[in-house]
Amino acid sequence: MTDALLPIAVIGAGPVGLAAAAQLIARGLEPLVLEAGPEIGQAVRAWGHVRMFSPWRYNTDAAARALLEAEGWTAPEAEAYPTGAELVARYLAPLAATQALRGRIRTGARVVGIARADHGRLHDGAGRDAAPFVLHVETCCGIQAVHARAVIDCSGTWGAPNPAGAHGLPAPGEARNADRIAYGIPDVLGAARETYAGATTLVVGAGHSAMNAVLDLVALAKEAPGTRILWAFRRPLGAVNFGGGARDGLAQRGALGAQAQALVESGAVTALAPFLIDRIARDGAALAVTGRQGERVTMLRAGRMIVAAGFRPDLSFLREVRLGLDPAVETTPALAPLIDPNLHSCGTVRPHGEAELRHPEAGFWIAGMKSYGRAPTFLLATGHEQVRSIAAALAGDWQAAREVQLELPETGVCSTDRTDATDRASAGCCAQVAAEVPAVASGCCAASGSSPAEVAPLVASGCCDSPSPVAAAAARKGCCG
Ligand SMILES: Cc1cc2nc3c(=O)[nH]c(=O)nc-3n(C[C@H](O)[C@H](O)[C@H](O)COP(=O)(O)OP(=O)(O)OC[C@H]3O[C@@H](n4cnc5c(N)ncnc54)[C@H](O)[C@@H]3O)c2cc1C
Which pTM was predicted? Predict the structure, then answer.
């Protein structure tokens, strides 16, 4: 087969990978979608119980809709909010089953390596840019080599969650206690109900995933006595971005943040803010989690942890590809300043496409959730525009590739809001924030009391040998007494 006849490999059959395939077909190009899971939409299925905060009108791609409509598909109600499971059932699965796509998707096909044929990363050689790509694909029959003329990596970030540890590394003991730690959003009100009912759960993270997990746990607590929720944030509470509330262009997203904030303020959940996790150990059946609250070392006990601290891109199988990545965000340098949470907290992003997503390796792009690297604000509508632009470029339609158009709903909150909040929150350890953390031991060997092991999350301060619960009032003393 000559290079021109080789397919364009699309890694991942999630919403953006399938949209990429539809866009390529619309341009008369030949996609081959490689999906690691046994079924398409593997990552979305894992959070199938979660209701999306964007309505249907933002969640489908134009080229995908055209394929579906040609086969009699009825679009869901534009303003309704699907769950992840509904996104699969009503859109992704029918899309993958269309005549155009069904023969072009391989499931059970995990890409474990990509390179230019006969050119490792180091080797220039005259024909490097013209050489096809070779993808090593792990299947039930072993590793297979697949050749492609270009690659669009839409493999998402679901498989690479950030760890709980303070430094971006897994906390010592985190891996060892993995049987009591869930990453992402477990189905607390469904399949995982028995695990969390009546237990104390420490939720780590401040984004929408953490908010969803906390809301579900609070709903569970109403039905299952003894269910307690601790919520650990990296920042002081006043600096946590709960979103724009009623100002958010996506009403559900705004409501999610507002509800989460109300739960913290009402004391329905115990907020630990800031709380930077340094160690996770086992204390009988519970986890003993040691962390820092400013200068104070605190140890608390929880039966379970849910770590919803965001995701990072898995770059391991791109080792032989010449990537151009921003050192902090791990996205392309052109995209980084548009989405870097260190620079601004606006969820909206300027329209961008092939040009901003280009890497030094010609013919290779990362699109979809993974294209945002470590930034948390990706929306499907962004991904659809990305792959439309990339497909146009691959077809040689540079004008269409450049004319990126995207209207995203405003989040209603921007960096200026956040800066003010940070200033307020860092007013000292006796400010309002500290008073809202009622149930944590602090200081050095504060007075101890007794309380039931699972129910009392309180353990001890860093200088004591063994963890022991302490009374809430005593807990506040170390800093403000
Ligand atoms: C809980 C949750 C709720 C969200 N809600 C919204 C929302 O309301 N609105 C919105 O716009 N966005 C939302 N997002 C963000 C984003 O749109 C979704 O994460 C979306 O699924 C991203 O699509 P994707 O195709 O880029 O990646 P994914 O959906 O993650 O798909 C990637 C696919 O690649 C496969 N894969 C991974 N590695 C490999 C490999 N090495 N080889 C082959 N295949 C591989 C995976 O199995 C998966 O099927 C949400 C995200 C989460 C986690």
Answer: 0.87
